[in-house]
Write a structure and sequence with these properties.
- The protein is about 35% helix and about 15% strand.
- The chain is an alpha/beta fold.
- The protein has a domain at about 80-255: Rossmann fold.
- A four-stranded parallel sheet has the order 1-6-5-2.
- α4 (about 120-135) crosses α6 (about 160-170).
- The mean pLDDT is about 90.
- The structure holds zinc ion (2 copies).
- One zinc ion (ZN) binds near residues 61, 81 and 84.
Length: about 260
Amino acid sequence: MARYKNPTEFFLIVNAVLKSLIIFLYPTQCRYCEENLDPADGHYICKSCWQTVEFIARPYCETCGCPRSQTIALPDKIASCNKCPDSARFRKARSVAGYDSVVGAGLRLLKYSGKTVMAKPLADLMIKAMPMLFGMEDYDYIVPVPLHKKRRRERGYNQVELIGRRLSSTTNIPMKTRSLIKTVHTPPQVGLSYEKRQRDVKGHFDLSDPLEHAGKRILLIDDVLTTGATANESARVLLQKGKAKYVDVFTLLRVLQKL
Ligand SMILES: [Zn+2]
Ligand SMILES: [Zn+2]
């Protein structure tokens, strides 16, 4: 120990050696790049992969938030586009990143592999992006898109609620988790056409207490925005039945369609 300038230096070295030994004996790989994962950097996905997240930025459609090609000369702001849902009920929709990214990998761990610990880094991305996309003072409530009670029972949790809990406590915008309800159980929508999806969600949501939304400014949150049909139908119910003042949509991911 005499070789070390002070005991702290000695313990730092011991700590580093032990850490390397743990990684050597029990290697865990990043689920995205497959490099060895340093447990100190978090769970399942490595620090350098998280650093590759590309946040969606303008130019995008001001209504549905769909990114537009930067190679074509475009006005600074595009009011609407051909990807906007038919008669958009929400005021605007925005997303943090594209689905084909490390964020998509993180969400799949949370959603399909029971890794609830992933809610934290995913929520942190929404917390980071939110001031760039929304006015922080513009909302009375956060409302997560619900799961049907059967799906919720199977999974044990609603992943959007887990993310929303952290978003809510950091932004101080209260979250209402029991008001918007999904009344119809539907199979996963992967692979269905846009028209089929629009039809599929019509009438699938309801409000348990419509009175609590009257005049309220609502930030509806979801994990993925694909066609916008679910967000649009949820917004329709909150506005028509709940008499909300307006509904904006914030999703973690967006399936980017070729334009
Ligand atoms: Zn990685
Ligand atoms: Zn649009």
